Amino acid sequence: MVDQDRKRRVALITGVTGQDGAYLAEYLLGLGYTVHGIKRRSSSFNTARVDHLYQDPHVGDVPFLMHYGDMTDSTNLIRLVQQIRPTEIYNLAAQSHVAVSFESPEYTANADAVGVLRLLEAIRILGLEKDTRFYQASTSELYGLVQEVPQRETTPFYPRSPYAVAKLYGYWITVNYREAYGMFASNGILFNHESPIRGETFVTRKITRGVARIEVGLEDAIYLGNLEAKRDWGHARDYVRGMHAILQADKPDDFVLATGETRSVREFVELAFGEVGRRVEWQGEGVDEVGRDVASGKIVVRIDPAYFRPTEVDLLIGDATKARQKLGWTAQTSFRDLVKEMVASDLADARRDVSGSRGV
Ligand code: NDP
Ligand code: GDR
């Protein structure tokens, strides 16, 4: 029998205004989905990443719609799921900044842990367990303190921040609802993924934006924390394909998505400056360490202890063999191309800022 609901392709994306939400919405629209996104009320516009996808619903049927909502408001989530009756839910909304989670641990738990439960309960309360597939944005931060490398689906978790602990709950409640209620509920355990629309306070974007602004003369130096942390960095565009593939699998399951390569923050800095033809030389130690541009002798990187975390995740490197074998997914974009694309985009923005400030 043809499953009518599998032919109806209606996605609900929480966190649609974020980096991944924007790439995923674009990808699903390209596949012919009707896409509903949840955005938060804010005092100024917060939809810049998806504005290019938006069409005025007053002109007729449009495939992309946005609704106000919040992961801390169950009545809102239940009502939206009831109205939309999505065939797939991608739960991407989260207070996603690890350092901020040490400052706002309770809010992070509310949005990132209990928020997942609220959405799963909405599906259950509405009796949509067999109609709605659920994707949970789980994270390599779950691995935390190194137990095994490369990290894979069977590697034990050891979360190292309020963010990661909240996400641990999100991971397990997703597994539990799958097992308890037979829901198609899956975790994507995604390693870091970046892009030109990455939030400006995550280290990669902070670096590429800083490099661009130094290059055009808008700033002198980038202030960073731990340069030795190592991450498995991929491109968000590749990872949203994986999220979709996870929900098209024959059965619900949990998958690592990663590139299988790891680089330090220091290497990221060096490569990003290399994109604008600068070579960085390191001098000093600890918080007195600086990065100098060899050609000009100017300091372009400084260390600010404020950016060190109370507990750090030192090394992430993922093994995405299961996703490759079962979903046919692999990361496509090389680390070098990722850095190149991010620097080029930030350079274009910085040049616009310069000409804007000169009034030309
Ligand atoms: P972003 O920070 O770019 O986006 C987060 C989104 O969640 C934004 O749309 C934000 O809204 C929204 N949001 C935050 N709090 C709430 C709330 N209380 N109610 C409703 N919406 C809320 O994150 P990414 O796109 O990078 O990541 C997407 C998801 O994947 C997150 O859950 C993140 O934790 C997880 N993840 C990310 C990885 C990465 O490397 N990018 C790796 C592994 C997991 P607003 O725009 O208004 O702030
Ligand atoms: P992460 O990303 O914590 O891995 O979480 P982030 O880019 O914030 O940090 C990566 C590493 O860089 C070090 N670092 C700095 N980080 C920031 N933000 N700012 C700095 O100035 C700085 N200097 C050094 C950090 O200490 C860390 O070791 C991201 C988020 O997207 C999560 O939501 C997601 O779950 C994980 O990736 C996988």
TrEMBL record:
Pfam families membership: GDP_Man_Dehyd
Molecular function in Gene Ontology: GDP-mannose 4,6-dehydratase activity; NADP+ binding
Enzyme class, broadest EC rank: lyase
Keyword vocabulary terms for this entry: Lyase, NADP, Nodulation
Cofactor(s) it depends on: NADP(+)
UniProt domain NAD(P)-binding: residue ranges: 12-342
UniProt-listed Enzyme Commission number(s): 4.2.1.47
BP GO annotations: 'de novo' GDP-L-fucose biosynthetic process
Reaction catalysed by this enzyme: GDP-alpha-D-mannose = GDP-4-dehydro-alpha-D-rhamnose + H2O
Family: Belongs to the NAD(P)-dependent epimerase/dehydratase family. GDP-mannose 4,6-dehydratase subfamily.
The protein's role, per its UniProt record: Catalyzes the conversion of GDP-D-mannose to GDP-4-dehydro-6-deoxy-D-mannose.
NCBIfam families registered for this protein in UniProt: gmd
Protein name stated in the entry: GDP-mannose 4,6-dehydratase
Native source species: Bradyrhizobium oligotrophicum S58
Gene name linked to the record: gmd
